[in-house]
Amino acid sequence: xxxxxxxxxxKFLVWLASLACLALLAGCENVTLTNLTPASMPENPSQIYTxxxxxxxxxxxxxxxxxxxxxxxxxxxxxxxxLGEGIYDFEYQLPAGRDQIAYYFLVNYxxxxxxxxxxxxxxxxxxxxxxxxxxxxxxxxxxxxxxxxVSVLGRGFTPQDSIAFNGxxxxxxxxxxxxxSFFVPALEANRNYQVRVxxxxxxxxxxxxxxxxxxxxxxxxxxxxxxxxxxxxxxxLPNPAPPGGTLLDVTTDVPDSIIMPEVxxxxxxxFVSITVEGGKxxxxxxxxxxxxxxxxxxxxxxxxx
Length: 305
Hints:
The protein is mainly β. It has one helix at 8-30, and strands spanning 31-35, 40-42, 48-57, 62-71, 74-77, 79-80, 87-93, 100-113, 116-123, 127-132, 135-139, 143-145, 149-155, 162-165, 168-176, 179-183, 191-198, 204-212, 217-219, 222-226, 230-236, 246-248, 250-252, 258-259, 263-265, 271-278, 282-289, 295-303. The chain folds into three domains: 19-132, Sandwich (Immunoglobulin-like); 135-212, Immunoglobulins (Immunoglobulin-like, Sandwich), CATH 2.60.40; 217-303, Immunoglobulin-like (Sandwich). 8% of the residues lie in helices and 56% in strands. Strand 27 and strand 28 (295-303) form a beta hairpin. The model is unreliable at 1-6 and 11-28 (pLDDT under 50).
């Protein structure tokens, strides 16, 4: 049997590695670092963001403690937070055009023993804070019928943002960077739906919305027109339209035969009348989903002059 002997040089390296591990473990036992900084922060006009660290001493032999933070390769001293013992803060001015900050905390201190001060150091992992330029605060209301206009309050909205109900797009209106609105889509009533804001920056949850049942009466129930002829069509709701009005999303299978405007029952009204004009000859229907038994149909016939 052949046995490999460990050379003196290798023994010395193993001994050094063991000492390093023991020193590291001793540092971890002496001081505990807890990062109190959130992983994301909402954007603020000052572009100043606070990083916080809690330091817990595990030994009364620790002296000369100096907590620091390393942000983007630059080292800064932390300041004592007067609101909590052992808590230290640093306020960082974010450079223009940035939305992420990489950092870690570093603490140097001495351990006193036998009238000798032994320098020690401990640090956290490298972390990243994301600055959230868009966030959703709340839905204006959490239930309503198909077609109702509902506002979403928040910050950082853009004209490219859109609302979806369980993945189904809803017609969305950009009001301002602090508000969006949408019309409740024609989905099954008496159900709850998860509402989200979709954008190029990612999706954000808004809340749960319940679609309540409603009905609509259409008069007349059928249209017979010649090309170029006009006729009035009236839509009546059982209750006054809510703030923002009620959108009646009317579609047709003969778009070349029907010329008509968008149908919105004004706020506080129970009906609206529109003018329908005959286009190219054809036979089909107008469809209004989400009301009554699920769909309202109006037969349409357009003949030539």
